[in-house]
Specification:
CATH topology: Rossmann fold
Mean pLDDT: 91
Helix content: 40-55%
Radius of gyration: 15 Å
Distance between the termini: 14 Å
Structural class: alpha/beta
Strand order of the largest sheet: 2-3-1-4-5
Low-confidence stretches: none
Shape: globular
Strand content: 5-15%
Largest sheet: 5 strands, parallel
Order of helices and strands: EHEHHEHEHHEH
CATH class: Alpha Beta
């Protein structure tokens, strides 16, 4: 496990898990939100993000934390390990709502505690029905990869604890 992607529905805890994985392994951590978003909430071009991913992917070891369907296949091709946080919708919704108003090291701004992005919440609500099947199909297309799928935070925590 030297080149790892951590994927899952928004709110599943990808960034928290990835920071713990980084702490346990020492692998460099690259949150995709920091590659994609600027502090003024504008995004870099797809080409620029792809170039950054390729540069990171060319190094010997890393963790890339984030979903981003447009670059998922590329990241799957570059990695040796895929970790999928495959949690129920209610867990992910709670994760999204609980993090509002909190500074996060993986996002260049603080999401206001009093604002709710209903479009984003709708995406989270539809993730398991709409996006999860595509993610599982993409994973199945890479039988050469080590794949770890966690269905609960407790499973993920046990894995992290097993690393030392």
């Amino acid at each position: 496990m030297k080149k790892v992607i951590v994927i899952g529905c928004p709110g599943s805890g990808k960034s928290v898990f990835s920071r713990a994985l980084h702490a346990a392994t020492g692998l460099p951590l690259y949150p995709l939100d920091l590659l994609r978003w600027r502090a003024d909430r504008t995004i870099v071009s797809r080409e620029e993000m792809t170039q950054k991913i390729l540069e990171i992917g060319a190094t010997d070891a890393w963790i890339m934390d984030g979903n981003y369907g447009a670059t998922m296949e590329l990241r799957m091709a570059l990695c040796d390990t895929i970790i999928f946080l495959d949690y129920p919708t209610d867990v992910c919704l709670a994760g999204v709502l609980d993090r509002r108003g909190t500074a996060r090291p993986d996002l260049p701004w603080v999401e206001p505690a009093d604002e709710i992005d209903t479009e984003f919440l709708d995406f989270v609500k539809s993730y398991n029905a709409v996006h999860r099947p595509t993610v599982l199909e993409r994973i199945a297309n890479h039988p050469e990869k080590t794949v770890l799928v966690f269905h609960t935070r407790a499973e993920a925590d046990r894995f992290l604890a097993s690393l030392g």
